[in-house]
Amino acid sequence: MPRPDPAELYELTEDGQIRSPTQTHSASQYVDGRTIDWLQEEAVERERTNSQRAQHGVRGLLLPWFDAARMWLVVILIGIGIGVTGGWLDVLVKWLGDLREGRCSYGFFYNQVACCSGVKPGEACTDWRTWSEFFGVGPAPAQALLQSFVYVSLAVAFAGSAAVLVKTYAPYAFHTGIPEIKAILGGYVLTAFLTPWTLLIKALGLALAVASGLSLGKEGPLVHVACCMAYLLSRFFKQFRNSEAQQRKLLAAAAAAGVSVAFGSPLGGVLFGLEELDTFANESEVMWRGFVASAVAAVSLQWVNPFGTSKLVLFQVTNASDTWRAFELIPWLTLGVIGGILGSVLIKLNVEIALYRRNSALNEWPIVEVIGVSAITAAISYLVVFSRVQASELVANLFQECDPTKIDYHGLCNPTAMWENVFLLILTAAIKVLLTAWTFGMMIPAGIFLPTIAIGACLGRAVGLLTQGLQRAYPTAWIFLSCPPDPSVRCVSPGFYAVIGASAMLGGVTRMTISLVVILFELTGALSHVLPIMISVMTSKWVGDAFGKDGGIYAVWIAMRGYPWLPPVDFEDKGDTGAQLMRPLERLVVIEDEQDTVLSLDGMLNDHDFHGFPVVRRQEFLGFVTRDKLRLALAPLLCEDSERRKRCFFSSQTSSPDEQVDFSSLLEEAVLQLRQEVPKELVVNMFQKMNLRQIIFTTGGKLRGMVTKSDVVKLLTCNFPHSGALGSGARRSWA
Amino acid sequence: MPRPDPAELYELTEDGQIRSPTQTHSASQYVDGRTIDWLQEEAVERERTNSQRAQHGVRGLLLPWFDAARMWLVVILIGIGIGVTGGWLDVLVKWLGDLREGRCSYGFFYNQVACCSGVKPGEACTDWRTWSEFFGVGPAPAQALLQSFVYVSLAVAFAGSAAVLVKTYAPYAFHTGIPEIKAILGGYVLTAFLTPWTLLIKALGLALAVASGLSLGKEGPLVHVACCMAYLLSRFFKQFRNSEAQQRKLLAAAAAAGVSVAFGSPLGGVLFGLEELDTFANESEVMWRGFVASAVAAVSLQWVNPFGTSKLVLFQVTNASDTWRAFELIPWLTLGVIGGILGSVLIKLNVEIALYRRNSALNEWPIVEVIGVSAITAAISYLVVFSRVQASELVANLFQECDPTKIDYHGLCNPTAMWENVFLLILTAAIKVLLTAWTFGMMIPAGIFLPTIAIGACLGRAVGLLTQGLQRAYPTAWIFLSCPPDPSVRCVSPGFYAVIGASAMLGGVTRMTISLVVILFELTGALSHVLPIMISVMTSKWVGDAFGKDGGIYAVWIAMRGYPWLPPVDFEDKGDTGAQLMRPLERLVVIEDEQDTVLSLDGMLNDHDFHGFPVVRRQEFLGFVTRDKLRLALAPLLCEDSERRKRCFFSSQTSSPDEQVDFSSLLEEAVLQLRQEVPKELVVNMFQKMNLRQIIFTTGGKLRGMVTKSDVVKLLTCNFPHSGALGSGARRSWA
User: Fold this and answer.
1) Which fold has domain A578-734?
2) pTM for this structure?
């Protein structure tokens, strides 16, 4: 890393004074791969608001108000931005998807629904032409050949161009983005992940990837897009530009808005932020912003109205019987168990594939991989009837109850074809598990939610069909006595079993609980069935956790990438204390007050990559100095020979300041200190709850050791076998 | 308080050894009014699980498993218990309520619905007889007189007997219980609040109070009942009996289950625990238990099926149009503002009445007050048509859209009587505000949710009627152009405005956000309207907070009672440090190592009521000794004259142990220490997040001062004018 010119870091303040770098604390002080110091950030923010309030007269009253107004403006803009973007992405995806089958005769840029919107119900739509009609191909085999050729080649073209875009312009735009966002919200610095360029490529690539028919969803990437927007907007305001902590609070709200738009689930967005991103626990104010951003985003999405239904509910469950019977608990619990097991299997499979990809020739040929997988996916999709349509359409159909007045989707409602349907559904699920495990991690934007829902819906519908078949075959068995005696009245609703299956599968893969339940019933509108959904999510999480305490697919990817993220697990020590966790004094690099010279300090900075150094005087702990502050203070002194050999003092009570360099302004004295006898559990707990970067251990004022966030992360992820397997090798840099 | 006999506190362990009181840490060590030490509790729990795991062979494997099994057993039993209790309470209330109007001819213990269940639709029910029919009173005026006489006198009898029960047997069974539960979950010890006696009286008194028709709800008290049940169940298992922290984790799950049953809202229960009780932030495990307890409770309630509908949704919203128009945002935002203002007014009114009650003669005559208010309430209820029925029935009717096929509730759907209806609705709301402000705090079990919903629903329906009237009067105005042109199609749904009004009012009174939204749509089933509900809750919270940062009615009551509860507010200091917050060394009572004698320590214990004392040697901080441990250790020594003058040493490195008493086992060394330069904000933050009881401030190992939880509570509640106004005068006891 090139050393920054210190002059660049001096900054002209609004009142024309030059602020020294030890006073200012701009966001630029952090480089990618570091972890921000929340306590420090909060202190700077506190100082800023206090200086505002201290201003005389109206200024002192208005400045804080302007601050709040700007913040709410940004939150509302984020909501509107992601709502509108999400809506238009849906329109784009629909158009691209339809393009694989044909085009509108009177305008290239109309999708099938828009093209046929002028047609009265009952009439055939002649404006929309399939490619074979458009090119005037006559014979049926040639038609089929042309259609499937265009279908597969456009799929490959979409996926390939998405991969090229990502690979060339914004490598961080690949994958879901949730693991990175979790790490960033926890304090990790990864500016490259949030650039406008990433925003553009991720949005565009996402539309292409979804339209290509690969086994992926748009949910996670939309959250990423929302966060990029928030970052971009925050750059326009000094109050956010200068504070990484304030930026992160905006990002949290943006993430909630992203989920809100992805699922049409404003409440689910807030809860996702609460449960999965684990950010709102810190401040109710942040949750509140997430709430507002989420609501605004949902209103904006409804205003864009991409599906022309003016509804937020994506997969409306209709006709499901309102009551449920006790015997149904058996298939539902079964689905929960299947979801838990299959979720674990999917995670493990995904990890193995990711490791294989990293260590094989595929690592060098990501675009070829995407093209190959998209070709295979498109080909298989043509063969297996249920996967020919977009996953979202499949899910919508599986969630639908059979209704004689509506079109029967691929004979799913034909009672005589039960076994064929069950076989096909299970086959589809199995294929989707394999494809998803491979797709999630390729060089394209890809979410895991929708494929998981599709897999679960297939299995759930299969179990539902089996239960229904059993009930119809033995309507008088004692277990089915609670069913209505009239055989024409439906007792078992297989469509609702698909919802249960989807919840169970999602529970197994993500290990989320409340937010999942809320998202699912905002997604389906099946409020009266909240209890069965809760029960299946509960069961699948239990079973999944029993198969491996990996904490869901996002936590696994965070561990594989080696991000410094503290999983919110309840750590239990075995009687250990902080002394066992800390890096003892002998292994610490410390600054000796009034002993170290300018030159020796510079050498220390070059030798060690640590974020900061404790300052001691004869073992007595004085305070903490961060690397960046020290480097900035040393830079001007290194040029003058007379200064280079001078000793430096950090404590303010020193007696001989004349021949020494005064670094006392660098020293942070308000550092958390604990005794080393404190239980390890408490130390871990403090890191988890207080967002700390380090804790100093002292006894009677003497430095004993230090624990950094990275030590705690290592401790908590040590039982996961592939920690850091996908990391960039720079794992130590945030230590 | 009588001093406990130390011998009683010695305990025979399972392996037959006598455990010294310094090793054991039974729950009985805490007396009411103290705050538990979470860190200490966690340490004991950790020791216990470690000793279990250390057991040889199968025992070491099975013991932790048994622990978990017992815990889940208790959680599930709590869920079943409160579900069944809640269901049966509903049945009891229905019966008592119907009894005010008549009785079943073939059985005294049937309510009206059960009595008429055999009657075919369309036929008149002759088995249910009003009192005038039963007594064979002929003339209409005499009938009305008899009916109203029985109505009012039974109301007074119910309310009076509830008050007598509460006053005589369980004073803690009065009021809602939520403030106390919040304090208890935060660590406050109030065993009297959770006794089986309180459980019985609260449940019985609640049924009587609700049936009496007073302006109160069953929601908060049901949470209290659930917590009492959890406490009772936990007493059967040693692992909970001996650990206040484990008990509290069970109580949190029970509270979630209580809300789940009260509103038929399993998800709302979990979120209530998350947001309002602020307990799950600590451990995901606890949230998980709340989830399970909540789901089990809802299933049990559905199994009891008190309303015979086999539905959880209490106030089903039907026929509401699925789409909404942009202009409707204006009345909805108006409702949000009204809710925020009126919520604040209700809180302030309630506070003033509570203070007046405390300082006037009413304080001595609680039962007379209840009887008087119930008589007034019953009389007014008879006069104002909308309040004659139970509040829950009123709400259900206000939430209902007009439907020509159904009975028109008191002419609410008559378009020509709009102004009369609006006037009546506003009058009802105003009366209910006054009655509720008075009732909430009397000597009976009383919840605030249902009355608040009723007030909000009246106002919302009124605004809805006005909007509808405006739209019908000017259907061609540009603002109403989005309405369907056909005037017979409904454009504005006043029933849904009632839901919005209820949300806004609840938001203003409780200042909850997400959990409120979830509870409301689990209550109404109006999932497609989640956005308007969110917007109104948002607005009313904003407006309410602008009128006073009191944090809702529960926080106000906690402050008035002076419980040591830390509000989860974002505290911002003005550049202050811990030094300004702490009680400095000069004002601390400390133990001097090797200086204090047995006698002087005993004198210190008698003079000062503090929970614990720092131990120092020449200003150097050695550790912390709790009052209870010290008292137990001193007790046997005080009897012998030779021991009483001996000096005591606490530090283990002392050189002359012979002539001194060894108290080193009492010393807690793993105490949190900070420097006094740490920002005040951080200190407050640590108390809020880590559940601490005290923080010691040291510099270079020297004791500088101490901050206790009570100091922080005082700091955070200092801007509320009536802090501790209803306290028992023992406010200092938990310091």
Assistant:
1) CBS-domain (3.10.580)
2) 0.82
